[in-house]
Amino acid sequence: MKNTLSSRRFILMGIFITVGIIYIIRLLFLQVFDDSYAQLANRNALRFVTQYPARGLIYDRKGELLVYNELVYDLMVIPRQVKNLDTALLCKLVGIDKEQFLTRMKKAVNYSSYAPSSFEKQISKEDFGPIQEKLYMFPGFYAQSRTLRYYPHAVASHVLGYVGEVNENMIKKNPYYKKGDYIGMSGMEKFYEEILRGEKGSKITLVDVHNREKGSFQDGKYDTASIAGHNLYSSIDLQLQLYAEKIMANKRGSIVAIEPSTGEILCFVSAPFYDPNMLVGRVRGNNYMKLLNDISKPLFNRALMAEYPPGSIFKVAQAMIALDMGVVYPDTGFPCDRSLVGCHNHPMASNVRDAIKMSCNPYFYRLYQRIIQQKDPSTQKIESKYGLSIWDDAMYKLGFGKKLGIDLPDSKSGFIPDTSYYNRYYKGGGWNFFTIYSNSIGQGEVGVIPLQMANFAAIVANRGWYITPHLVKYFGDENLKKRNTQYVKKNYSMIPQEYWDIAVEGMWGVVHEAGGTARRARIDDIAVCGKTGTAQNIGADHSVFICFAPKDNPKIAISVYVENAAGGGGTWAAPIASLLCEKYIRGEVLRKDMEETYINAAPCQTLPLRRYIQKSESD
Amino acid sequence: MERRERGLLENIDWSTILIYLTLVLIGWISIYSAVYDEAHKSIFDLDARYGKQLVWIGISFLIALFILVIDPKFFSQTSYLWYGVFIVMLLAVLVVGSETKGAKSWFGVGDFGIQPSEFAKATTALALAKILSGIDVDMKNMKTKFAAITIVAIPMLLVLLQNDTGSALVFLIFVLVLFREGLSLSVLIFGVVMAILFVLSLLINPYVLIGILFAITIAIWLLYRKRKLSIWLCLGLFVVAAGVVLSVEYVYDNALESHQKDRIEVLLGQKSDPKGVEYNVNQSKIAIGSGGLFGKGFLKGTQTKYNFVPEQDTDFIFCTIGEEWGFVGSVFVIGLYLSLMIRLIRMAERQRSKFSRIYGYCVTSILFAHFTINIGMTIGLLPVIGIPLPYISYGGSSLMAFTLLLFIFIRQDASRMDLV
Prior knowledge:
Helix content of chain A: 25-40%
Low-confidence stretches of chain B: 1-5
Helix content of chain B: 55-70%
Radius of gyration of chain B: 23 Å
Largest sheet of chain A: 7 strands, mixed
Oligomer: heterodimer
Mean pLDDT of chain A: 85
Number of strands of chain A: 21
CATH class of the largest domain in chain A: Alpha Beta
CATH architecture of the largest domain in chain A: 3-Layer(aba) Sandwich
Strand order of the largest sheet of chain B: 1-2-3
Order of helices and strands of chain B: HHHHHEEEHHHHHHHHHHHHH
Number of strands of chain B: 3
Largest sheet of chain B: 3 strands, antiparallel
Strand content of chain B: under 5%
Largest interface: A-B, 40 and 49 residues
Number of helices of chain B: 18
């Protein structure tokens, strides 16, 4: 009996060994045959942290900082790790109430209990101090640093643009971007995104179950450093830009100033504008909606997007084309026949120069007629279509009716009607000079954006050529600037310089001679050449003026638009342009009374805005 | 007589002590690795758990030494006393104990706590050995069975009342001792069959299962009817089995708590919840599985070091071993336990005193229960039942109790040549 019971030890040993063998087999499968667990362990413990590069800075032409980066903090939360939370204290530090706290937590939980979501975004360094101090008291919360754009002078909103978080579409289009990344949304920030952004890097760190970093993985062997973005050295002259914005602060319209010899844009204003700092950080969402819904459309970039009828300024271009085509001669005169088209009181223009100076409408009616009513060499018949096509080509060469190619996104091309347009418009081709003569004086179908106007002023200043207007001169770092070679080519009008000299003389007369329409633009010791325009519109006319100065060796070419300001180009736009010329060339404005008058003036009629904007935007 | 004169040191089973010391050392190093903390780099730092464990190890060694020098008869003579004392302690802890992780099983003493249930296993072993070593004891006798079951059931129920289901389950392992002492094999088989039926009835529709059982019954009867197997016996067993199957659902729904049901369902693959109930087991399997053949190396385990595995220094300490020492290290530890248990069985069998033998089997069985449940849990073969891995898991009560348990037997064994 004893022996039989004693032999039961073998059964027990058998049980022990069986369990042991089962466990060893199980371990063999877990540890040796199946390597998926190793990957899972890596996924647990390795965190791929994106290293955000510093975005490139933007300077003005004299090295003044226009945009820089500032460190801010996102307060992140991993809901599952939140415990023993002193809700009241956290709310007080972040500056929210309990209800907001609950909604945010709920949102975070809905996203994921285990993954971080941002609880409060873009807390400034100053505000973050007290939170940082107490952060240890809030398990589950941690901070992530980011950089935001700041604009020390709060200028040039439409030039610089703004930066925002990428949306789904952008991520789909370009897989470089991941959720939460920033991207340039408009202006130079958008156009030069790839230069400004730099390259993201990646750092692999070991993390524990609470997502706390525990050091780098294999001493950073697999880390890649981020590459900081390149700086932009822009052509903007901060002082001139500030001055232009000061003048336009209570007006609507635009100012574009170009250095004729280089095509560099010196100042670029679309009024109303906004403080670019409004579209940064936490306040951005609200401010954006506010700006979007503002009846005066501050987000709308008039200098690039608003196609205005060019008005009388167009006459200079018409004269150049007509001279070049040989349909008029420099001393060709036409009587001021007001039965053709209305005009103001002035002596008869007996040559092209005086016609420009006096801006005689009937003169240009006749001149345009000669341009359009050409004998078609194939049929030997007078054919408006033939004339129009020659005129179109000449206009394109002057930078009208096409996108100039400025280094800003979303530019309009303006509009120069061609034969196919009129064929469509007048069904069956029932059109000729007499249906389109309004073009002659810059009304009718033609549309021009302010940038093209400034560019045209630069063409006249250069006597026949332009370099595409642009904003960025150099990229790179302080020590290693790289020239922006996109904008060095001269575009020739193919119109001889002697004709341009006539335009220059005419425009000089506009400002300096009796009978000129822009006497208010005169500066005592600087020879300004200009041309006024009055673009008819819904509501009061737009006051338009282009000019360049000095007459010889010009330093600046400007177009000024003041919307719905009764009184014509000479009343508002011309003196404003003149002030800018003086400011830029002299460095200061001596005509203090005049300066004060135009800074304080608010000539823009308010009524028809909504309709106007809708029209402009739908063009 | 000659051997006895050669003294205690000659008779002590040194290979068992060597295994014991190895396990304790592995435990200490694994705890160091599991809760390693930059601020407390020294393994002797008393602010960290590895430092505290060193204190427990020291106290345990003193206990072992104390046991080795006192008269071996002391324990057989005072078994009932100790048993009684710890029954009182188990009752007391229900009243004044502190609660940890849902179980009210601790006496708090300053920073340290004492868990009477750990010691109750040893005292129950003593009492069971004592009662079964009586002169006219026979396992076939109903009275003996009743007495033995009572001795085990009282502390087991009290531990169950503490809500420490894991520790209570360990008491069931005494059935192995009873089996060695003459309990019918059919009881063991019955137990195993019941366990299989329990699992099956959770996996399969009970009525389908009953149908299958009926088919098996008929098949067995058809095969063995020439050997005069009674159809009534077969049908009787079938009815019992069917009753078990039908009652499982009720028991399962009413007797078990939801977290226990969750753990079982996760194990059986009926429930998937990787972030919740399944989390522990998943992370534990990831830790062990990522160790590979040779492991990631000492202090290099990311899973355990960075706290992905909960309870990594106590119930889930085996993860640290699996992750940092790999398959080789895991097999080594399993090998140590198997050697220890087999060694203890052989030692038990060489006892002349019935008390010593039965007590030896108790020790072996308790170790076996902890070994099986703990490692089975970490490698995902058994549901999560929180009991420590003997000598390795962090914890003073556990280490002291298991040291006490083992060294009482080593002391008995050392004087096995004495007159009974």
